[in-house]
Amino acid sequence: MAGTGGERISLLAAGNTGGAGGGSSGGHEKVAERPLRFYLSAIPPSVCGLALGVCSLGVTWQSAAAILVASGWLRVTADIISLVAFNLGCTTLLLYMSKAVIYPTSFLHDVSSSLGNSVLPTFDMTLMVIAMWMYKHGLHSAAVAIWSVAVAVHVVLLLLFARHVVPAVKEQRWDDVTPAWIIPPVGIALASGTASEMGLQLGGYVGIFFWIAIFFFCFFFPAALYKTVSLGVPTPERQEPLVAIFAAPAALLLTVWIALGGHQGHTLTHFLFLLEMLAVVFVAAKIPRLSVLPFTPEHSAFTFPADIAAKSCIIYSHMYLVTRGVMVVCSWLFLFFATFVVTVTAARFCRAGLQALSDPDSLSDPEAA
């Protein structure tokens, strides 16, 4: 649980926060005494959500530059943001990959926990976005290989996730249900979206992941929303930022649906857009409460929903060939807000990580686990 001594979080302690305070005078000596894997083992799976948000921001900026305006300077700006976001996202993802390779015991603990297993699919979703970025920059073979691995990993994590869902459903354990449960079953839609962007045909079955996601969405989204809104089941303070995830599913499905050829005359197009707007309003109403919470890695849940909401608004406007007016203004507002959210969240992650490095005694010793 978050401490009450100020905004301080041990990023490397899998999201547990401690009291306020900076590094001690012997902080550098403490860091030197600790093996590298001591710090890697404590990196929370939530950093994968941050990596997904950072990489997706670059893609969204490029979409805005290509669709909303044609000015050269904005295209250059979007390319720069995309390049920076790609490198930062890859670096963040490599941190967690290093943990999985060097300290597999801690990684397996993440996989075995309900919350960790539900968040980990953001890892392979990030790989899909990276593959799409690489494909658009001419690295076709490498991109297809990475995309294929990412899809396989997502399917494995989805099957492992079922181990938590089935018992919870049978025993009606509503305490176990969190908004993060939406990620594994609905996030697989990104496979169809990225495959379409990369021009992969998959034997004519490129949309199969989208329809699988739609099927699961009809069950998991209402269940998570019902638990959050109606049941009155208390949510641990650390998990409260996960409510931001509600803004992502409809936006992701709308983006993928349009990429697959969904048109403005289809009922599903309007239904998903309306649902997205309602979800955004719902999450926005929670922001005053969430903004005063102590920072935890679960705040990464804000990043990708902000990105995908902006992108869905952009391509929805483009579908109607709108070049000015309310929709275009909303698209820019969404994009600027997403940029702000991702930047602030990434900065707070860096700050939390530096605080943890300066005070390694606040971390649990992996050797003792």
TrEMBL record:
Name of the protein described by the UniProt record: C4-dicarboxylate transporter/malic acid transport protein
GO cellular component, one term: plasma membrane
The keyword Disulfide bond is annotated on this UniProt entry: no
Upper taxonomic lineage: Eukaryota, Cryptophyceae, Cryptomonadales, Hemiselmidaceae, Hemiselmis
Compartments it resides in: Membrane
Domain of life of the organism encoding this protein: Eukaryota
Keyword field contains Transmembrane helix: yes
UniProt keyword list: Membrane, Transmembrane, Transmembrane helix
InterPro entries associated with the record: SLAC1/Mae1/Ssu1/TehA, Tellurite_res_ion_channel, Voltage-dep_anion_channel_sf
Membrane association type: Multi-pass membrane protein
Pfam families from the UniProt entry: SLAC1
MF annotations from Gene Ontology: monoatomic cation efflux transmembrane transporter activity
TM ranges: 38-61, 73-98, 118-135, 142-166, 202-222, 242-260, 267-287, 326-347
Predominant place of localization: membrane
